[in-house]
Design brief:
8 helices; mainly alpha; 160 residues; single chain
């Protein structure tokens, strides 16, 4: 099953006037994120490099995008959060891992797991399963745990 392509660019909604400083930069970042699926590999690599150069400056835009009604915005935000890998993204990724859209919750669960595993505590991943995790997201998390040499979620959650 192929991932649905992300829509190109932002909708035709006008940019709010009198918006807080930096909002234009956030819209530009979101436009880059939304077009990642349509870029050739060299362009995609350049876009990801731009994102990593922005570093922590991208956090407000990504958090805002993760709460938008449009699935493409939430999916792009989850993907970008996974690329940047900051611990600050864990609450947003936890929320997105329970998103109704299957692609969004799977990408968010993978990003959450990658970030949690950098803390060298695979049990941190268990917080993701609180309240139930959609089956596709749970399978993606188990796949990452195994790839990193950790036991499956059900084995982590059983007492030692």
């Amino acid at each position: 099953m192929r991932e649905p392509s992300l829509s190109q660019g932002r909708s035709a909604e006008p940019e709010p006037s009198g918006a807080e400083p930096g909002l234009r930069a956030e819209y530009a970042l979101l436009d880059v994120l939304l077009t990642l699926g349509h870029l050739d590999p060299a362009e995609r690599e350049a876009a990801i490099e731009l994102l990593t150069e922005l570093g922590r400056e991208a956090i407000p835009a990504l958090v805002r995008a993760s709460t938008e009604a449009r699935r493409d915005s939430r999916l792009a935000a989850a993907h970008a959060m996974g690329i940047l890998g900051y611990d600050e993204f864990l609450p947003e990724l936890h929320r997105l891992a329970h998103d109704p859209d299957s692609w969004t919750h799977t990408v968010a669960a993978q990003a959450y797991t990658r970030i949690a595993l950098t803390q060298d505590d695979p049990r941190a991943v268990l917080q993701l399963f609180a309240g139930g995790l959609p089956p596709a997201a749970a399978a993606a998390v188990d796949e990452l745990l195994v790839a990193h040499g950790y036991p499956l979620e059900r084995e982590l959650s059983s007492p030692p």
